[in-house]
Write the structure tokens for this entry.
Amino acid sequence: MAELQTLARWIKESSRTVALTGAGMSTESGIPDFRSKSGWWNNIDPATVATVEALEENYELFQSFYAARIGGLRGCKPHRGHQILAEWEQRGFLHSIATQNVDGFHQQAGSKQVCELHGSIRTVRCSTCEQRTELDAFLAGQSCQTCKGRLRPDVVLFGEMLPQEPWQRALADIRSAELVLVIGTSLQVYPVAQLPHMTQGRVAILNYEPTAQDEHFELVIHGKAGELLQQLNTQI
Ligand code: APR
């Protein structure tokens, strides 16, 4: 495919490439995304589970939703595409990854420079006293041992501020990037969806379906992230 050859050349020429990934990066690992036909939000209204209101007013549904997502990670692991991004970092072809994903798969695959813009589902804290606690306590529906408050995973809920350090780091990296690889995201959730517009460099989208922003960017390749990254990797 000519586009893949072009993108492989851009990656080899770029002195600073940054990847921006979303849930489509993990579906080939067996993790559902959100807005595809088989995505989470086709069966559940995010307002009822992924908001502070849900945490405060509908804790049972909130806890069961995140417990299901945490349980869904069991037996799943990073796929070849995650590993290729980690190898490109080691080989100097990828500077960092800004991810909306909370599954930790980029780090598990060996990537070191990862900005988790929407937090992590692998760690838990008390929503009242912020005391960190064990994942199993949250999965068991327990309350905080210190203050009896409600436990929650360290994911960013709709309406919450993004963690400042990862956001500032991702923004700086993308601003100064020569190439941004947008992989497996519908680019519908702000402020992350704004990031590709902040770069001085080129932007290439690798996504299974068209996104709302395809027309704004130099290169759009539709396909599966794992497969496209493997094809690209043969040329890098
Ligand atoms: N390869 C490439 N693209 C894929 C693949 C795949 N194997 N599987 C799915 N996709 C694409 C889908 O076509 C879709 O456009 O990935 C995109 C995933 O989009 P969303 O489900 O909207 O996920 P994302 O963009 O990461 O959502 C952003 O929304 O619900 C919140 O906090 C949540 O971080 C999430 C944010």
Q: What stands out?
A: Residues 8 and 236 are 6 Å apart (CA to CA). The chain has a mean pLDDT of 97. The chain has two domains: 1-31+78-118+162-236, 32-75+123-155. Residues 1-31+78-118+162-236 form a domain with the Rossmann fold fold (CATH 3.40.50.1220).
